[in-house]
Amino acid sequence: MHIYKVGGAVRDRLLGRPVTDIDWLVVGATVEDMLAKGFRPVGADFPVFLHPKTGQEYALARTERKSGRGYGGFTFHASPDVTLEQDLIRRDLTINAMAEDADGTLYDPYQGKADLDRRLLRHVSPAFAEDPLRVLRVARFAARYAPLGFKVADDTLGLMQHISASGELLALTAERTWKEIERALMEAHPKVFFEVLRACNALHVLLPELEPHPQTLVALEQAARHQLALPVRWACLLHPLPTASIKALNQRLKTPRECQDLSMLTSQCLEQANKALELPAQTLLDLLQTFDVYRRPQRFEDFLAACRAIAQGNGQTDYRQADYLQGAMAAARAVDVKPLVQAGFTGQALGEALKNERLQTLDAYKGS
């Protein structure tokens, strides 16, 4: 039995980046061997085990062959006679197909270290084209390592174009697709992810709503530069789309509720926010009510962050509307309901009285 550190942990150590997750590969062992050493099995499709003390994942060396469509369309074979090289060749990129033993010796049968030095994202073997998820993964790696100068190799991009044309991308589940998009959105330069998808024709297949709107990437990049939350980044990306398109896209990808809500509200209310300084008190109150700022103030804060990033993407350096709307929200939220209750208002009458108080407060706020 030989145990190797593989994949991202090796790659990031060589790049001088922090290593967070470590993947371990076990060569020359059986399931029985692992169980005898106290490992706990967790893999449903192929043998993966949790270390009895550290809880880290250890996978048996395996080979695979294409047996169906999509990301899950593979048959795996794990056996003690599967070599390290056979396991590594099934991986996506050469920079992810390196291993390291306990002594720190590097095993690099497919020149991953050379591609790291050349800043190249290159596939390991033609089997790359059998897994459509790799289109999204490579685009995500391109976004992650763009600050270091990494580019997708021409022949790898050609295979990604082949996958896009094959229809295999449509076999990916919504959950897998969104997971890759979500991770890419949270990279430092998420626009590169969508640029690579466009270059390999995958954007047209998976996210056709975005094709006519390349300018949205500028707003997204501003959101990333300010390290804004995932729902804000998603809203920035989708803001110029019609609400019907945003709704359809969110439903197709099964995006989280926070992303759905903020992207829809940003599309609907952006114009009002841009004209905030001119809005009458009643319209201002209606806008605050739309976001339910009394119970969910953070959603309005996220909306304003998206508006600011969109404005900056359009070259507007001073977005005074955000500060103005934050002040309006604070003023409306500060209205105390207790005096109205003490005055005898109840039920619908209380709601109307509270609304009038807030309206008067916003009117005064506008005049201040």
Please list the strands of the largest sheet in the order they lie side by side.
3-4-5-2-1-8-9
Oligomerization status of the protein chains: single chain
- Count of helical segments? 18
Query: What characteristic shape results from the CA principal axes?
Result: elongated
> Order of SSEs, N→C?
EHEHEEEEEHEEHEHEHHHHHHHHHHHHH
Largest sheet: 7 strands, mixed
Strands, total number: 11
Low-confidence stretches: none
Structural Rg: 26 Å
Proportion of residues in helical segments? 40-55%
Average of the residue pLDDT scores: 93
**Which structural class should the secondary elements be placed in?**
alpha+beta
* End-to-end CA span: 76 Å
**Beta-strand content estimate:** 5-15%
Question: Could you explain how this protein is built, in words?
Answer:
Helices cover 52% and strands 10% of the residues. It has 368 residues and is α+β, with helices and mostly antiparallel strands. The strands form 3 sheets. Strands 3-4-5-2-1-8-9 form a 7-stranded mixed β-sheet. The radius of gyration is 26 Å and the shape is elongated. The termini are far apart.
What layout of secondary structure does this protein have?
Elements: E1 2-6, H1 8-15, E2 23-27, H2 31-36, E3 40-41, E4 48-50, E5 57-60, E6 62-66, E7 74-78, H3 84-88, E8 99-100, E9 106-107, H4 112-118, E10 120-121, H5 133-144, E11 151-152, H6 154-166, H7 174-185, H8 191-199, H9 202-206, H10 216-225, H11 230-238, H12 243-253, H13 257-274, H14 281-290, H15 297-313, H16 320-333, H17 338-342, H18 347-367
